[in-house]
Amino acid sequence: MKTVIVKYNAGNIRSVQFALERIGVNGIVTDNVEEIRAADKVIFPGVGEASTAMAYLKERRLDQVIKDLKQPVLGICLGMQLMCKHSEENDTECLGIFDSNVKKFESPVANLLKIPQIGWNNITNLHSVLFEHVPENSYMYFVHSYYAALGADTVAITNYVINYTSALQKDNFYGVQFHPEKSAAAGSRIIENFLNI
Amino acid sequence: MLTKRIIPCLDIKDGRTVKGINFENIRDAGDPIELGALYAEQGADELVFLDITATNERRKTLSALVTEIARHVNIPFTVGGGISSVDDVSVLLQSGADKISVNTSAFKNPGLVDELSRQFGSQCIVLAIDTRFEGDDWYVYLNGGRVKTEVKAYDWAKEAVERGAGEILLTSMNNDGTRQGFALDITGKLAQNLNVPVIASGGAGTMEHFVDVFQTAQADAALAASIFHYKEIEIPALKNFLYQKNINMRF
């Protein structure tokens, strides 16, 4: 099985590669279109800013390549957000794979909500093969200022004053807002579940 | 619901873990990779590695160590100590660090905070402040607590957050090494008035001290070193205790 990690101008690629290595999988980091198309599994990671990341993908025509993939694709954090329709982060048109829009967290009262949300939060209403043997209310590591609103493709919900989408699934596309590569044993389980699809 | 975080801190010198008592009298407490992985397994929510090596070889040694930590540790970790440039940060993040912390260099050149947050995102920039209460207020100290400034800790923290710092790691020098509890007043002032998470550090001696810093000061995370290294408090027991006190914890 060949697993690729899409290389673009976003961080945390090394962490994803090491998380794969810990479960005995060699993740190939590449922005080569043919290599991405030929892979069995594609991981689309990301920490960074939406408009810059989208511009980079478009410039290399990776936007269309990702949309056209037929094998299982897992977007992580910004990667997941870029697979949504639109992001409020610098008013960015995204890939439009998931039927969700990305909004900015807003504190209803000053300082009630620290932004970005940094830390461990639980995931609930789990409805995806990604969460096989992952109990309801498992804790995952989140770092984000923007979130995907609840929608038809939502397969996990997290609460940070409001309920928002912590995982999405549509056809062969999967997305998680948290960082499974940094979420201890439960996160590792989710990566394994994805690789076993 | 977002949990409070328990963060063991590992001071690193020449690739080994050490812990300074009141920033002096350092003694060896083990191998950082092994210790880090052990803490992760025990339920630590995050780790902080503070490099205090002062040799010319430190940059290369540190990035190699960071890579090994990232390879073996499955929770987020921050690397700090003597980081003073965009290049330093870039190398450490590429090596696998999730966040980096800056202290003296950011105070001397506040523009560094803007530059780092613009380039790498606020979420990976932790501003560390060493502070001491003197006379009427808490003042910023530099160079590992050796150099006093006339700037108040709250003012500097507020400015750094405006410039893009994503978290504040606040160490009270009055409390550090005493095991008499965290500095609740200054920690509370920062945690309740700044819109970023505040990590309290310095003074942890009992489990009750963690209850105080989370419930009274409302810190977002608490950091400690020697009590964990010398197994005076073990992380699973601590998290159970805090959970019993209605503090939200990850298990």
UniProtKB/TrEMBL annotation, chain A:
PROSITE patterns: GATASE_TYPE_1
Subcellular location: Cytoplasm
Keywords from the named record: Amino-acid biosynthesis, Cytoplasm, Glutamine amidotransferase, Histidine biosynthesis, Hydrolase, Lyase, Transferase
Domain Glutamine amidotransferase as annotated: residue spans: 30-195
GO cellular component, as recorded: cytoplasm
GO biological process: L-histidine biosynthetic process
GO MF assignments: glutaminase activity; imidazoleglycerol-phosphate synthase activity; lyase activity
Pathway: Amino-acid biosynthesis; L-histidine biosynthesis; L-histidine from 5-phospho-alpha-D-ribose 1-diphosphate: step 5/9
EC number: 4.3.2.10, 3.5.1.2
CDD domains given in the database record: GATase1_IGP_Synthase
Active-site feature positions: 77, 179, 181
Family matches, as Pfam families: GATase
Reactions listed under catalytic activity: 5-[(5-phospho-1-deoxy-D-ribulos-1-ylimino)methylamino]-1-(5-phospho-beta-D-ribosyl)imidazole-4-carboxamide + L-glutamine = D-erythro-1-(imidazol-4-yl)glycerol 3-phosphate + 5-amino-1-(5-phospho-beta-D-ribosyl)imidazole-4-carboxamide + L-glutamate + H(+); L-glutamine + H2O = L-glutamate + NH4(+)
Its job: IGPS catalyzes the conversion of PRFAR and glutamine to IGP, AICAR and glutamate. The HisH subunit catalyzes the hydrolysis of glutamine to glutamate and ammonia as part of the synthesis of IGP and AICAR. The resulting ammonia molecule is channeled to the active site of HisF.
SUBUNIT field: Heterodimer of HisH and HisF.
Name the record gives this protein: Imidazole glycerol phosphate synthase subunit HisH
Species, as recorded: Chitinophaga jiangningensis
From TrEMBL, chain B:
GO process terms (BP): L-histidine biosynthetic process
E.C. number: 4.3.2.10
InterPro entries attached to this UniProt entry: Aldolase_TIM, His_biosynth, HisF, IGPS_HisA/HisF, RibuloseP-bd_barrel
Pfam families per UniProt: His_biosynth
Compartmental location: Cytoplasm
Record flagged with keyword Lyase: yes
Catalytic reaction equation(s): 5-[(5-phospho-1-deoxy-D-ribulos-1-ylimino)methylamino]-1-(5-phospho-beta-D-ribosyl)imidazole-4-carboxamide + L-glutamine = D-erythro-1-(imidazol-4-yl)glycerol 3-phosphate + 5-amino-1-(5-phospho-beta-D-ribosyl)imidazole-4-carboxamide + L-glutamate + H(+)
Keywords per UniProt: Amino-acid biosynthesis, Cytoplasm, Histidine biosynthesis, Lyase
Residues the record marks as active site: 11, 130
Signal peptide bounds: none
Coiled coil region boundaries: none
Pathway: Amino-acid biosynthesis; L-histidine biosynthesis; L-histidine from 5-phospho-alpha-D-ribose 1-diphosphate: step 5/9
GO cellular component entries: cytoplasm
A GO MF term: lyase activity
Principal localisation: cytoplasm
Protein family per UniProt: Belongs to the HisA/HisF family.
Subunit structure: Heterodimer of HisH and HisF.
Chain's role: IGPS catalyzes the conversion of PRFAR and glutamine to IGP, AICAR and glutamate. The HisF subunit catalyzes the cyclization activity that produces IGP and AICAR from PRFAR using the ammonia provided by the HisH subunit.
Protein name: Imidazole glycerol phosphate synthase subunit HisF
Organism: Chitinophaga jiangningensis
